[in-house]
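dumping this here before i forget
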Amino acid sequence: MTDDAKFDKMINEPVERLVVKLAVPTVLIMLVSAMYNSADMYFVGSLGTAETGAIGVNLSLMTIIQAAGFFFGQGAGNYVSRALGAKRREDAEKMASTGFFLAFAFGCAIAVLGTVFVEPLALALGSTDTILPYAAQYLRYILLAAPFMVSSIALNNILRFQGSAVFSMIGMVSGAVLNVALDPIFIFVLGLGVAGAALATAISQVVGFALLLAGCFRGGNVRISLKNFSPRPERCAELARGGAPSLLRQTMMSVSTIILNNSAKGIGGTEAFADAVIAAVSVVNRVVLLSGSVMLGLGQGFQPVCGFNFGARRFDRVKRGFRFCVISSSALLAVVAAGCFIFAPDIVRFFRDDKDVIEIGLYALRAQALAMPLMSWIVLCNTTLQTTGQTLPASVLSFARQGVFQIPLLLILVSAIGVRGIQISTPIADLCTFLLSVPFGVAALRKMKSGQEPA
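structure:
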């Protein structure tokens, strides 16, 4: 597709139809990614509670890796979409290449440092002594794949922000499907256990990376090339502006998970109960991620529409797309939340049939289901602010959920009411973040209604 044809489609095609068209591949990506994360949990869950807890410990590292990928990918992608909307292709190509190569270099740094200090890293992430051997096995393989994981997330975002969600989908979904296929082979047939699950993930990430990189040279997408690598201070500053909210959001998610895992160590008086708490929360996190996949995919489908039209100063289309996404995803999440609340015992039992895990996970999942519909406004408000270059309010919202609300709640409630504090801290944080995000979103929409460019 030529630049002119892509530009015409992004600023003239009916917004609702365009968002849905771009959202279908991203929804599929989110669903399949969540399903393969859940597959890891399902297969490893049959090995034991400590092994299941190792997946929860690894979640903190995965969140750090994702934070780096989203920082470089969304930092570059936000700029790319606005530059293409303003018909500045050369600037877009330089930003895309700069974001990609910086992402790969950062992934190499994570791999080297993490591998050298793998056991201290596992303990810092919240591993108990019984979980530690399995967590260390899992982390070693994930760390080896870190450069490809960070770069894949960056490439996925750069492709999506150009409106090339199909190429993004091919890379991400192929890797996820391969992961699910390799899991039972490596875990059970080859007898590698937890290490097999990690190896399957590492191999699938490398394959997905290769397909995503190939997608950058098809369909008129901006090209990734070393000659376009241009880490000039002003370009890096622009990348940081676009990626800072994502970095804050993902980093705080990692910090809150680490604090949660470490808080679990002192609950119940035994390591077995602490392992059950970590395993239960890991299961609930995977279920919530899967439940919100369609909403997240819809928001990601809206991002290139938002970026292109904002760059072209078509603020009416930005607002219309925002309203459509919020209303449709809120309704969908309400239905999903009802299902999670009603069938919570069966859902938790599916992943780990352990009395303590089920009891802890049941309450946590039902509590999160009550707040689940609020996430539509929170996520789409943050997405719109970030994509339109409003770094400060987007960063405040990204930091607030964990940094202002969840982490303090964990520190206060766990010491006061034990495991119940872990179970209710996330939904309370979601409610507080929703209330904080309303004035930010309303202010941005009002400025666009008056024809002003939000600053």
